[in-house]
Amino acid sequence: METTPHQDHDQPGTTLVHPAPPTMPAIEQAKGMLMLARGCDADTAFGILRTLSQDLNLKVRDIAVVVTAIGSGEAAVPHLAKTVEIVRGRLQGLMRDGRP
Fold first, then answer.
1. For an engineered disulfide with 40, which of 24, 25, 27, 44 has Cβ 3.0 to 4.6 Å away?
2. Which long-range contacts does 51-57 make (Cβ < 8 Å, 24+ apart)?
3. Total-model pTM
4. In this structure, how many other beta carbons lie within 10 angstroms of the beta carbon of residue 25?
5. What span, in angstroms and rounded, lies between the C-alpha atoms of 88 and 100?
6. What pLDDT is attached to residue 51?
7. Does the CA dihedral 58-49-71-94 come out positive or negative?
8. What's the confidence (pLDDT) of residue 2?
9. In angstroms, what CA-CA distances link 61 with 6, 12, 22?
10. Domain range list for the chain
């Protein structure tokens, strides 16, 4: 399980470690794939995920799962099959146009 540091304001100089939300690994992996494919920074990659999320009315995590599946060559995300095709087309357009 991943953890995220959190500053303990009651005890200066100490950091508490809390478990990372379960969606974080999927989102971070998708951001990394977009950063590699597009040569962009983390904020731009998250912006792409957020835009796709808003346009398709899906959670960012679901978009991240689809992006990761596409990027790793996985053919099937059964419950999101139609979304995979839509996102694949949008990502191909992004690669051509260079816009989020």
1. 44
2. 51/100, 52/87, 52/90, 55/90, 56/83, 56/86, 56/87
3. 0.67
4. 15
5. 14
6. 94
7. positive
8. 46
9. 22, 34, 10
10. 22-97
